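Per reviewer request, we include the raw input and output of the structure prediction for the construct analysed in the revised manuscript.
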Amino acid sequence: MQAHYFDMSVQPVRNGQVLPLAHSALAGVASHAVPRGMVPAVGTVLRSSEGVDLFRIVGHAMLPACDAPHAVPCALASALTDLSAGPVRCRVTSEGYALAWVTLSDKGAQGQREDASGPCIAAMVRESIPLRYEQGFMLPDDGAQLRALLTELALVQRYDIIITTGGTGLGPRDVTPEATSAVIEKRLQGFEQAMLAASLAKTPHAVISRALAGTLGGAIIINLPGSRKAVAENLEAVLPALPHALAKLQGDPSDCAQA
């Protein structure tokens, strides 16, 4: 596939430094990684014409601009090497999927409980599916915050896989399914049934789980229970189908029977 290069000017940066890159600098970039009119998804890499990885996109934000009345959209890029000031010719590359996991816990958000389930999600997905980027998030059991974050991660940051842990039971603060239902576009009931079957094989108490799965934009969102053990049991049930589901969601035209 032909590589599409573009020129941009950079300030001196050191490896690991995060800096904003105005979307205008990336406007019109067209490649297999970035459809024309869109900006690079989180986790994509800007690679020089010499084959050196220069920046990884780690987020997007609206930031104030000097001598401008409005904030401007920017990509937040982490430098992958030391760079001197000057022009660089680069292209956008994307290999693997971007994973976000969201831990819902009032105590965790207050720093009173260690998150064991989120890292478990990351480890299991990483072992089964090629990832270009992964990032964890911690929220209290708050539906409004979760709705906002799911929308941001799927439609602005453009993560491919978004997995929540916690808040799927019957407690008064368990609101994850309601928040998820409010934002998803297509329900993945097969995922839900597979997770429920896996849990019921371990405990009859699984019948009270209300975990949902669905899609938003190009992302698949999956609710998991809060315990590390239940996370592993539920995630194991749907991981084999996840790459194929993502491929179909993101436009793979091939016949499902031949996939």
